[in-house]
Specification:
2 copies of one chain form a homodimer. In chain A, 27% of the residues lie in helices and 35% in strands. Chain A has 190 residues and is α+β, with helices and mostly antiparallel strands. Chains A and B meet through strand 2, helix 1, strand 3, strand 4 and strand 7 of A and strand 2, helix 1, strand 3, strand 4 and strand 7 of B.
């Protein structure tokens, strides 16, 4: 029997997540906690006005540098009412994308590791912002969203309360809902 | 002389931003503060495992519903080491994109409104995360990034300190660095 024909341990997949690999990953981090340290990175270039473009490539994780087959790249712009050319979603809209994506993936992964089947997930998000903060017209008004609402519709037998609890393991939910030290430095040249 | 040939008030553009329109926008919000109330939206659909897709379309702002010529759409996924198919950047990487884009646009707009010329901007971002929080392996470790660093390189005559100050009007900087109420609800069906 050739190696290629050897029966493999069947991957047990729940919600499209390989829960055998998931359990192995968790075991590995339990034994070597430093494997849990990840660093993600982005670079961005301004293209004029409200338009700019980010590139996302390799990262550090699971104890080593992790390469991507090719970098991901996407723009951000502003709509005309915010003086842009509307060539891409704007930065605060990308926050909603990140939040939706992260709550969904987190809920799905945690459900998978508990054997909870999920058939479909969709979500709607709203973020309220008063641009008197951003524009500097008022220092009484915060600059970012003052409220964000996420409604997830999930096809599953699990109780809604449990699914909310699982979704809230989400890193982006933590990043957005809690404070976080962000160090911003500028280096100028002429 | 046909209307089409009438000389128009020349748009005064600084950093690619129409500062005449910017000043008019600020005046309008000063006179009618309710014009500053914006609501951005996203919807997301799970595609299996770590893969999902968001759509960003219209929003509310400047006192009315604002349509887009066509919706923007982008996916999120996870790399193989996080059990995904690596078809797109992951949610926490999109946070870095949103942050880079917002700091850049905010600095450029605020500089434009002050007559400060900026020639080029590029940035590098790093976000540190320990996935023992996300995975639930430790409740002593936060789930999201614990530190984010942003290095902006700016070609300008303005002092770096002033540019940092302008960049920090950024809504996404506020969203990420400060806490914010995020309401998550789940509705289940079978």
């Amino acid at each position: 029997m050739h190696a290629q024909q050897m029966p493999q341990n069947a991957a047990t997949t729940v919600n499209g997540v390989d829960v055998t690999a998931l359990a192995e990953t968790l075991d590995a981090i339990r034994q070597q906690p430093q494997l849990g340290a990840f660093q993600f990175r982005a670079s961005n270039t301004w293209l004029g006005g409200g338009l700019n473009r980010s590139t996302i490539d390799g990262f550090h994780g699971a104890g080593q540098e992790q390469a991507r087959p090719k970098p991901f790249s996407f723009s951000a712009d502003e709509p005309p009412v915010l003086l842009g050319g509307d060539k891409a979603a704007n930065p605060v809209e990308f926050v909603l994308h990140a939040l939706a994506a992260c709550l969904t993936t987190t809920m799905v992964y945690h459900a998978a590791s508990r054997g909870i089947a999920i058939k479909t997930v969709s979500s709607e998000l709203e973020g309220d912002i008063d641009i008197r903060g951003f524009t500097g017209l008022s220092d009484q008004v915060r600059k970012g969203y003052h409220h964000v609402r996420v409604k997830l519709r999930v096809e599953s037998d699990a109780p809604a309360e449990q699914l909310v609890e699982l979704a809230k393991f989400s890193p982006v939910y933590d990043i957005v809902s809690n404070s976080l030290p962000v160090e911003v430095t500028v280096e100028t040249h002429r």
